[in-house]
Amino acid sequence: RLMVGFNRRFAPMCQQAKTLFELNEPVIFSCYVNAGEVPKDHWINDSAEGGGRILGEACHFIDLSNFFVASEVKSVYANVIPVRGAIETVDNVNICLTYKNGSLGSIVYTSLAPKNLPKERIEIIGQGRAAIIDNFKNLVIYNKNKRNKIRSFRQAKGHRNQFKELIDSIVDNRPSPIPLSEIFASMKTTFAVLKSIRDAKIISY
Predict the structure, then answer these.
(1) For the packed helices 180-199 and 59-69, what is the interaxial angle rounded to 10 degrees?
(2) Where is pLDDT greater, at 134 or 23?
(3) Per residue in 104-127, pLDDT tens?
């Protein structure tokens, strides 16, 4: 078994939001990440250890987009804020994804936001429905004329569920919770983001 720690897809609120949307029907996924600043010598910036912030952190949100859309990525385009003073390029990126089923994905990953702004906000819109996840503590569901808000006192990003599902799969001799093809697809897209930044062009496959 090969398991990669894409924990966000296992978060209870993401699992619940996923059930709202029909497979193969287009949706718009958007995600805002207040990544915060880290020192240049931080382990995440070490190419050998952390791989950099896109490869080591933004990959989680790329995988989450793929999880909700449930379609192959068609093209990738990423823009960065140019280095200026203390601004780091790879800390401030806008990632645009198009999918073969017509869906769109957008990820804003930045270190420029104030510290008191919640770290993560996720929105999925389509098929006459919408789900908004605010920092994995609040989930608001809009379905037709109904609005339902779910709150959690504990921030749950999916780590607990991820390990439980992995252990259960081993005990029950079932496949790993994340199919190998989906792990490869998420990392392929992450590398395409880096290539798009480097070459300043759309990467299509």
Answers:
(1) 120
(2) 134
(3) 999 999 988 998 999 999 999 999
